[in-house]
Amino acid sequence: MQKEVTLIAGDGIGPEIIISVKEIFTALGVPITWEEINAGIASLDSGGELIPQSLIDSVNKNKVALKGPITTPVGKGFKSVNVQLRHIFDLYQNIRPCKSTPGVISKFDNVDTVLFRENTEGLYAGLELYDDRLEMADSIARVTKKGSLRIVRAAFEYARKFGREKVTIVHKANILKWIGKIFLDAGDEVAKDYPEIEVNDRIIDNMCMQLVIRPEDYDVIVTTNLFGDILSDLCAGLVGGLGLVAGANIGDKVAIFEAVHGSAPDIAGQGLANPTAIIRSSILMLKHLKLNSFAEAIDLALNKTLADPQLCTADLGGASDTQQFTKSIISNIN
Ligand code: NAI
Questions:
Q1: Distance (Å, rounded) from C-alpha 199 to C-alpha 156?
Q2: Neighbours of 98 (CB within 10 A)
Q3: What are the angstrom distances between the C-alpha of 70 and each of 79, 94, 263?
Q4: Domain shared by 207 and 308, yes or no
Q5: N or C: which end of the chain has fewer CB within 10 A?
Q6: Span between the terminal Cα atoms of the chain, in Å
Q7: Percentage with pLDDT > 90 across the chain
């Protein structure tokens, strides 16, 4: 039976890498039909809304979406469409697995972390004020007990389900005492229900240093919104770069899958984009939809391609463009 999924191509390198996923799904006969509706600058440019109501209706109907990156103007302009979508659908879990890939040249070959980033609160709660008279800005980091409990529980549940041994809670409770305490208390409360899982905590600055020295010490990591945003790019750097790392935004009703990286305007339209991160996001999506055999087939073909540096895109030292890389994956599908 065909399953309908909302497809948001995004902008920048978004449309180029989304084509890779579509071609691979077609070649493999994945039973998915796409309902394509864009948002952000691409939607504005074609006379639509920043976030069209038709997109919201489509995601609510299909419950699952695959999304390309969407540009956010820096220091001016509209609020991040990415953040708005997470708020609209209450996608409180941002899950970002980061694992070394055999054959891919990177700083480490032993990284295997899964980052749980709280996705709706913290400094991304949208509570920002500018006082023109005082030339002063306030940004409020809102952290709630309910929000902390649900993301920490999601991390522990994941650890239990997938046989992970340790959960590390990352915070800044030495300085941000209240929001840090709420998050740490949530960790203490939830950890009691998972006695088989080791738990520890790290202050964010130390955590950054630990990860670039001994990433193998870390397994499941759970943290607040801004720290999670920064740590996930840091982890991507450990395994070969942003072109490789997938993400899932999960709520109780809806899930939107997207790469960790942004719209990469510096390489857009040049055939240089590595589609691995969005392909891996689509693999997470297929597992979410319980289409595991398709997920595994794509994963095998992708890893086989990545194992040959010549077949890779320029960010990994290879000579292929986005289309050639995609064709290699398709030819590696059994
Ligand atoms: P970025 O992730 O777009 O790019 C950072 C660097 O990584 C660039 O040098 C880029 O060329 C490279 N890169 C990223 N993805 C790549 C890929 N698939 N293949 C090869 N190289 C890749 O981050 P940046 O430049 O800070 O942000 C650009 C725009 O993207 C901004 O407007 C930002 O707000 C937006 N953004 C959107 C996100 C989303 O849609 N979820 C997430 C992060 C940023």
A1: 9
A2: 27
A3: 11, 16, 6
A4: no
A5: N
A6: 22
A7: 97
- Catalytic residue status for 229: yes
Two tokens at 274? 């590595």
Q: What is the domain count for the chain?
A: 2
Distance 281 CA to ligand 1 centre (A): 15
* Closest among 171, 279, 154 to 224, alpha carbons compared: 171
Enclosing domain of residue 214 = 121-238
- The DSSP result for 79-116, as a single string, is PPHHHHHHHHTT--EEEEEEE--TT---S-S--EEEEE
Is the CB–ligand 1 distance for residue 70 below 6 Å? yes
What type of residue is 15? P
DSSP 313: B
Packing angle between helix 14-28 and helix 292-306, nearest 10 degrees? Answer: 120
> What's the whole-model pTM score?
0.97
What number is the average pLDDT over the span 292-310? 97
pLDDT of residue 77: 87
CA nearest ligand 1 atom 6, residue: 264
**CA of residue 70 to ligand 1 center, whole Å:** 9
Same domain, 150 and 218: yes
